[in-house]
């Protein structure tokens, strides 16, 4: 058995070695063919002139080229930091940058970038698996290739140095970029061969493009400053040709792009002295390839062993076992200023803790945004809460946004320069002062009389009739074109059992039900469902019963949830009216007004108008097309609710 295992391992290693060697045949063949094609030009070169060109480079030029090389490799390191964020490896940015710089310094010189880069990263980041490091290498290679294609296309369109056909081809990467951005915004998830994949966030795409631009400009500047005096070549003319040559070497896959790079540069710059150009390229390869490769190899042989203090970042905690949460989180929810903290039980939200643990926000990570829902669970300073959200969003390459927050947090966001929109109005009642014996409760008294006349009765039980409740909920969903999500309640027995449940019966038949999220000081209306034949006033009766019980429990506040703000966008009143109408504001407002509540304005905040539009798109998608909840309780299993 052991011999068979060893034989299988040997065969696997041999097959891997064969595949690796096979991959090298193609780039080496390309290089060989190119050398053969240009053999006459190569023979005519004056090697002594090339050597003289290298030796004639001034000290100042070497220093300037070294600086631009450092800038280029800094951008190279940022690729890795960006990809680590996208893949959620939790490797500190400094280590991700360093491993990226060293692995790319080696792989770009040796060739077979994905393989050698993955192995180098694995050596420098032992806490990651080889597969994770290979994934990072693949992602870096693909994102850089895509970024290079877009930047090259834009530069060629701005500074045309190629044929008309090439210019037409340059439009293809730009169309690809537009499609990527549109997909990221409108359809962030897609399926290929049964696998669910995500488009990268817009901020990550723009970050990659910016880094590719910095990297390629700095790399081109390295070559440019090494050009000997007297070469009549401007940077504006050289840069697009450098991009084409760089891409030729990249696509050919030869070590350092050697061969295709030089041939493309010489072919596209026939008016430049060939010996001078090739001498500058040789100097460029010494500084940009050889020296970094030696430094990278030294790091691989002697990797840093000192323990580093990771950059202080907000910590995001998810809850795969929702609606059942750890005891410390249960305590946070119980002590939260708003009972909407119970949205954590839906399983699609997380807690974002500040690095000092003094701030805790309920957040949802969407396609483009990190959205803080409602007010913080725990906060010592609202400005610090905004800083925590911003830092957490930056680490994920997402937009920081606040949804349905109170005035204090909104003002802190405004101090941080956020764009502010009044998004909703929350109805709330102080149970201690609640009474129906006022002129303002005239409509409510009439509804309660109708419910009483129809024989509507309240039921509170530890064993709810979930089958009947599900039927009512399904009918409600059909009438209302589906169930909403994100900041709204979802029907599930396990979730409902964590709430205050009120059942209304008429003629021994379930007529409707309502649930309230709870904390120590507040209840918040979460789900309200009426049966098809529910008597008039049934829903008013349920809310009234909840208010009476809250009064008996000495709760400070009961929230009847919110309605859309009547004028969220003063500059676009028609659009605001349309959104309010679509949300059913008028009917909800009429229902809640019957309880004569107080009204509190809630806000939506984002760093700018554009980011607000992107975040609002995310939120609307999450509300109208909610993700499947992580838990799916069945009514067959016995579930008891605590009253």
Q: Low-confidence parts, pLDDT < 50 over ≥5 residues?
A: 16-26, 36-46, 632-643
- N/C terminus separation: 61 Å
Percent in helix: 40-55%
Strand order of the largest sheet: 3-4-5-6-7-14-8-13-12-11-10-9
Quick one: overall form? elongated
Please describe the biggest sheet, giving its number of strands, its sense, and whether it closes into a barrel: 12 strands, mixed
Continuous helix count: 22
> Rg, please?
32 Å
Strand proportion, as a percent range, falls in 5-15%
User: Structural class given helices, strands, pairing?
Assistant: alpha+beta
* Tally of DSSP β-strands: 14
Mean pLDDT across all residues, rounded? 81
Account of the protein in words:
The protein has a twelve-stranded mixed β-sheet, sandwiched between helices. It has a two-stranded antiparallel sheet with strand order 1-2. Helix 4 packs antiparallel against helix 9, helix 5 packs antiparallel against helix 6 and helix 7 crosses helix 9. The two termini are about 60 Å apart. The longest helix is centred in the N-terminal third of the chain and has 36 residues. The radius of gyration is 32 Å and the shape is elongated. The C terminus is likely disordered. Among the domains are: about 240 residues, no CATH class; about 180 residues, Aminopeptidase (3-Layer(aba) Sandwich). It has 22 helices and 14 strands. With about 650 residues, the chain is of the alpha+beta class. Helix 19 links the parallel strand 12 and strand 13.
